[in-house]
Structure prediction request, 67 residues.
Amino acid sequence: MSKTISIIFIAIAVALIAYNVTMVDFANPFEKDSTIALIGIMASLCAIILLLVFVTSKKIQDKINKD
Prediction:
C-alpha cells in the first residue's frame, strides 16, 4: 500500500469523525444514535492509529532494506 493511499484512508477516517461528531447529542451522549456515533468516532480513531503504525513500519522497513 503506497503512502498516497494511506493518506486518502486517513482523510476518509477524519471525515467520518467529523460526521459522527455532528450526530452526537451532547446532552445525552449515551442514548440511541449518540452511542452509535461515539462507536463510529472510536472506530475511526483506531483506523487512523493503525494506518500511522503501518506507515511508520514501512519507513523502518525501507531503512533496513537500504542497508
